[in-house]
């Protein structure tokens, strides 16, 4: 589906992005008209190809030549994953579920898939470890010998080919002797000693090949540092992130150097969309995970280093006008995961000047909005929203309409492609 060369946007892409930067209203109005012309019912999920091309090129620029491993959880549209992974600058997939990894490796022909999380799903494990194509392409993530025990209990080492495994090295920042933990709570493998102990156990154990390491610096990649109205907090976040990355580069570099003496590591994965520049500076890292930046959820509006274009959006029908200054949309409660807060809600972006009603917010079946624009909106019109994160919104829709633009910025729906849900897949 690419209209670019090696990730560089075409002229049409640049023109469309100029429209978005200069006149957001015209950008959204063109999407609204394209969907109306195509006769698509709401809720409707739209992917603007021009914005996608812009974002893919920007990810490549920010990674500084380090290959990007596409995080599938942030996309969840197989045709987009296949397209992007095949481009220069991208290599392999970071999957979020074992059945998903198996499916991508065997049905999409993606040659290299790393599990981003451990899995103990016995049926999925049994299906994968008895499939020689899948075992040659998928690497499982482990942070404990307990996970190796479960794999062996499903299919003993002597009854299967060796399983490719990678160690999940905790990338969190610990200060005050470890009493303060900054980052996510994932792997217990944090220190050099932890990593070497687990590596020795893997290398000595029949039926497993240690092929890689993954570490995710969430406190850098997933924390905004330019939130409007929070200048002091932003400075504190940036200072923490600088210190955290300096500590991680030292620790990760030492761990990887010693692990390479024990095993032939094929990859060392790190980072995320929000940390590409900093992770690329780590010489121990061979590829960087990223995916959210392709679709450009509004979570990234609070980052200083970059600002992706809003490639993915969804439109809802206005079905009521309950009072002056208020309209009600059908659906809308597509709330993102994470700590419950206002920033997890979809963001109404067009028509401009709409906001949630505090007592209802984004509803399970209906979403009332108030604002100066409401009195100019008729029943049957559409309101457009951006999702907080990226891939999660695809769990709510079976299809994505792909919108293309000409050099004048006019938009048309060029194709409609299935999401994971549209292909009958529900992984997590």
From TrEMBL:
Transmembrane segments: none annotated. InterPro entries: Ala_racemase_N (IPR001608), D-amino_acid_metab_enzyme (IPR051466), PLP-binding_barrel (IPR029066). Residues 48-233 form the Alanine racemase N-terminal domain. It comes from the Bacteria. One of its GO terms (molecular function) is D-serine ammonia-lyase activity. One of its GO terms (biological process) is D-serine catabolic process. This is Putative amino acid aldolase or racemase. It comes from Gordonia terrae C-6. The lineage of its organism: Bacteria, Bacillati, Actinomycetota, Actinomycetes, Mycobacteriales.
């Amino acid at each position: 589906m690419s209209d670019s060369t090696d990730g560089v946007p075409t002229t049409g892409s640049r023109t469309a992005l100029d429209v978005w930067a200069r006149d957001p209203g015209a950008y959204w109005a063109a999407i609204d008209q394209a969907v109306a012309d195509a006769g698509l019912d709401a809720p409707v999920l739209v992917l603007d190809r021009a914005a996608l091309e812009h974002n893919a090129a920007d990810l490549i620029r920010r990674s500084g030549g380090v290959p990007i491993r596409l995080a599938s959880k942030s996309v969840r549209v197989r045709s987009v994953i296949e397209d992007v992974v095949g481009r220069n600058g991208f290599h392999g997939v970071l999957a979020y579920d074992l059945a998903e990894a198996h499916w991508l490796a065997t049905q999409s022909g993606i040659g290299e898939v790393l599990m981003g999380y451990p899995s103990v799903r016995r049926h999925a494990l049994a299906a994968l470890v008895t499939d020689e194509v899948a075992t040659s392409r998928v690497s499982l993530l482990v942070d404990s010998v307990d996970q190796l025990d479960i794999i062996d209990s499903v299919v003993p080492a002597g009854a299967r080919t060796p399983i490719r495994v990678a160690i999940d090295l905790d990338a969190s920042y610990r200060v005050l002797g470890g009493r303060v933990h900054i980052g996510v709570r994932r792997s217990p493998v944090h220190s050099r000693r932890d990593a070497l102990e687990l590596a020795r156990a893997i290398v000595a154990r029949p039926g497993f090949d240690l092929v890689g390491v993954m570490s995710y610096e969430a406190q850098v990649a997933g924390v905004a540092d330019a939130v409007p109205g929070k200048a002091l907090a932003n400075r504190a976040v940036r200072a923490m992130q600088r210190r955290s990355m300096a500590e991680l580069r030292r620790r990760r570099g030492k761990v990887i150097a010693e692990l390479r003496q024990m095993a032939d590591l094929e990859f060392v994965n790190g980072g995320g969309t929000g940390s590409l520049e900093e992770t690329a500076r780590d010489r121990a890292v061979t590829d960087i995970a990223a995916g959210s930046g392709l679709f450009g959820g509004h979570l990234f509006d609070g980052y200083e280093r970059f600002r992706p274009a809003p490639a993915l959006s969804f439109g809802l029908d206005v079905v009521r006008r309950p009072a002056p200054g208020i309209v009600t949309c059908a659906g809308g409660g597509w709330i993102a995961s994470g700590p419950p807060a206002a920033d997890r809600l979809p963001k109404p972006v067009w028509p401009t000047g709409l906001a949630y009603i505090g007592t209802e917010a984004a509803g399970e079946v209906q979403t009332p909005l108030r604002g100066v624009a409401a009195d100019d909106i008729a029943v049957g019109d559409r309101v457009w929203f951006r999702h907080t994160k990226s891939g999660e919104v695809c769990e709510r829709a079976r299809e994505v309409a792909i919108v293309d633009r000409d050099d004048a910025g006019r938009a048309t729906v060029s194709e409609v492609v299935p999401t994971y849900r549209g292909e009958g897949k529900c992984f997590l």
